[in-house]
Amino acid sequence: MRITLKLEELLMFMGSIFLFSLYDLAWWWFPLLILLPDIGMLGYLINTKVGAISYNIFHHKGIAILIFLLAFHMESHIGELTGIILFAHSSMDRIFGYGLKYSDDFKHTHLGWLDYR
Questions:
Q1: How far apart are CA 74 and CA 15, in angstroms?
Q2: Edge-to-edge strand order for the sheet containing 105-109?
Q3: How far apart are CA 62 and CA 1, in angstroms?
Q4: What 3-state DSSP class applies to 95?
Q5: Per-residue pLDDT of the chain (117 residues; tens, 9 = 90+)
Q6: Dihedral angle sign, alpha carbons of residues 61, 66, 19, 58
Q7: What's the rounded Cα separation, in Å, for the pair 30 and 17?
């Protein structure tokens, strides 16, 4: 089942790359922007509860889709790209086992406990 979930996330990541390619931007913008959602980890400098909340806001696929749809409705290309990048980043993280965080520990995710071995 784990492989199936990772393949599903890979397809969503590839779909995000496809959507990004529809915009008139140089290809190098994608790898440059893809790590920006990790700014949500800065909340962990305060404590694990604030860290989990800020991390989850930047890594929630529903929020990414909502941002994209609102931006699409408002005809904001920057907003649409923001939604695409947030969605792509979340898919990429889940491919590597990084899920939404619980407030007790950074390594405790909705996908299970992270194991860095």
A1: 22
A2: 101-102, 105-109, 112-113
A3: 23
A4: helix
A5: 689 999 999 999 999 999 999 999 999 999 999 999 999 999 999 999 999 999 999 999 999 999 999 999 999 999 999 999 999 999 999 999 899 999 999 899 988 888 765
A6: negative
A7: 8
